[in-house]
Write a structure and sequence with these properties.
Strand order of the largest sheet: 4-1-9-10-11-12-13-14
Radius of gyration: 19 Å
Largest sheet: 8 strands, mixed
Order of helices and strands: EEEHEEHEEEHEHEHEHHEEEHHH
Distance between the termini: 43 Å
Number of helices: 10
Length: about 325
């Protein structure tokens, strides 16, 4: 039996305090809170949680505080089967805490970060290289910059696959991120990242230009407009396609992209073609948006496949 991990994630796991509101509170009018939940999020942490939920063998690397919130973060990952043995302890309270305000009408959200957030990143010397190379896939979210770059290079040297979650942005992509992209095999990026990385406004041209920087697959997620995949041609197959979003009743979009990434890891680990990877990821992310709170509402395989069968081409 193969004892290797399927995925090791290096990035953020976060405690989310999720508030569903009719409107943002004001000092003289704080009303409008409809619902709340204490949830768990973070890009790479949620992706590993989702991948583990669907049966992959996953491990996760991040820092962790020594208080109850730090222990809560650890237990949350472990409940899904994620190995947390390589979490790096930090003295003092947990700083990976975010308040999420969710617009009840649209499901869109605003984030408020605790002071000191990610001020004590994982250092390269704190990584276990053998542990990272024990996985077939390394999943990064761009945090812990120096450690992420070192881990990506180790994984490439060992013949594994590097997947990068590049967050949506409206700003120029700076050199540290560009260097990490060059070490990436599968780049899954939010709205605006590829255009700001490449200088190309068109979604297809931006994807093609991003391939020239190192990745072999670029997936651009655009929310309600679905995702756009560009890949290096293989065996003469079509290497460019659009995957429409699925039509569901949206309650909360928090963590939708992270959930998409986790589902995509499942497809990669199981050797699915890129079309199925994108469709499955879109379905899992869509169903996740029907429930309040990140990591809540992760569907079963049967539920995801039922949605894919009901809307075979998706709906904008």
């Amino acid at each position: 039996m193969d004892s290797r991990l399927d995925v090791v994630g290096l990035g953020l796991a976060i405690v989310d305090v999720v508030l569903r509101v009719e409107r943002m509170p004001l000092w003289d009018d704080p009303r409008g809170l409809l619902d709340f939940t204490l949830a768990d999020g973070g890009p790479a942490g949620t992706a590993c949680y989702v991948a583990s939920t669907f049966g992959l063998r996953t491990g996760f690397v991040d820092t962790v505080g020594e208080d109850d919130l730090g222990e809560h973060r650890r237990r949350s990952l472990e409940r899904a089967g994620v190995d947390t043995s390589r979490l790096v302890p930090r003295e003092g309270p947990e700083d990976h805490v975010v308040v999420v305000y969710v617009d009840a009408a649209t499901g869109e959200r605003v984030f408020s970060f605790r002071r000191g957030f990610l001020s004590r990143p994982v250092d390269v010397a704190e990584l276990d290289r053998e542990y990272i190379e024990s996985a077939r896939i390394l999943h990064l979210d761009g945090s812990h910059g120096a450690a992420a770059l070192a881990a990506a290079r180790w994984m490439k040297e060992s013949g594994g696959t590097v997947v990068l979650d590049a967050a949506a942005t409206s700003h120029e992509v700076l050199e540290p991120a560009r260097t990490l992209v060059a070490e990436t095999d599968v780049l899954i990026c939010g709205s605006g990242f590829a255009p700001n990385l490449t200088g190309e406004d068109d979604v297809w041209r931006a994807g093609r230009a991003a391939l020239d920087l190192g990745p072999r697959v670029v997936v651009q997620t655009e929310g309600r407009r679905g995702s756009y995949t560009v890949a290096r041609p293989s065996d003469g197959r079509d290497a460019e396609f659009h995957t429409p979003a699925f039509d569901v009743e949206v309650v909360d979009t928090t963590g939708a992209g992270d959930t998409f990434h986790g589902a995509y890891l499942v497809g990669l680990a199981r050797g699915w073609d890129l079309e199925r990877c994108a469709s499955f990821s879109s379905a899992v992310a869509a169903l996740h948006c029907t429930v309040l709170g990140n990591r809540r509402g992760i569907p079963s395989m049967d539920e995801a496949e039922a949605l894919m069968a009901a809307q075979p081409a998706g709906k904008l």
